[in-house]
Amino acid sequence: MNPLVCYQIVALLLLGLGFYALVARHTLVGMLIGVELMLNGAGLSIVAAAQLTPADAILGQLGALLVMGLAAAEATLVLAIVLVVFKRFGNADADTARELKG
Amino acid sequence: MHLAHWNFLFGFGQIAFASYTLIILAGGGVAVTAHSLVRAMVGLVATMFGVAGLYMLLLADFVALMQILIYVGAVSVLIFFAIMLTRASADGGEAKGPGWRGILRAIAAFLLPVVLMIMLRFYGVSGSDTPKNIPVNALGAGLLGAYTLPFELISIVLLVATVGAVLLTLEKRGSK
After folding, report:
1. What is the reported pTM?
2. Which range marks the domain in which residue B74 is found?
């Protein structure tokens, strides 16, 4: 099998695992772990596509770095949101935060 | 670095790819199914290390190092803080056992990736066998030359995220 196809299949498996964590977990932190899995798969897919095809490799690697920076920013914001939800509702379940005005 | 050559029979490249994929899948499985969130986080760290190994195999050394620094060093510590501060691991009862609802969830989650894999086989993407070797100098030149705008943009995004996080957590205390 083509190496590019192998890397893309691993990236798609990471995407599926992330989706599954997003669906099956019911705490916000568990869902955040799923999102991180998906972002890892996205970065792997970008770098594999950039390194193994005639595309611009510098653009691909810098794109993966951009994804990493966005993941760090997103994790920071989600941590703050989880803290606020925990302070207001007493736990960090996704189901408990259903009141719009507390 | 000729380890990444795919061509010779049962080469180091294939063995390394297989073992990194095994690490990724095992870590991802633990991250998705573990009852304790701390164990799930350790599985996620293993997955990140496996992805860093695949970056090494793709000759993207700088991206691999940044993966270890940013993901394993920063993001995982951040999520550990989230687990600790919300005492989520003590709750337990995370993902339910593999009942038929779990199977339905797995089908729903893996539907899109499987469809994409079938499309991948159907359309037959073609790539070269050996990855390109880009020196770090070229990456830095690209960052300061053609791709300055995303570089500056990501710093602004990080600044806004930090300020937003501080404001979100201070808001409750100020209104008291």
Report:
1. 0.88
2. 2-134
State the total domains in chain B.
2
Mean pLDDT of A29-37: 92
**B37/B9 same-domain check:** yes
Query: Chain A within 8 Å of B169 (Cβ-Cβ)?
Result: yes
What's the pLDDT score for residue A17? 94
The answer on B68 and B155 residing in a single domain is: no
Predicted complex ipTM: 0.91
CATH 1.10.287.3510 fits A3-89, yes or no: yes
pLDDT (0 to 100) of residue B96: 54
pLDDT over threshold 60, residue B174: no
Query: DSSP of chain A, one letter per residue?
Result: --HHHHHHHHHHHHHHHHHHHHHH--BHHHHHHHHHHHHHHHHHHHHHHHHHSSS-HHHHHHHHHHHHHHHHHHHHHHHHHHHHHHHHHSS-BTTT---S--
**B109 and B161 both lie in a single domain:** no
> For all residues of chain B together, what is the average pLDDT?
84
Q: Is B168–A6 a contact, with Cβ atoms under 8 angstroms apart?
A: no
On chain A, the residues whose CB falls within 8 A of the CB of B121 are 5
If asked whether residues B78 and B108 sit together in one domain, one would say yes
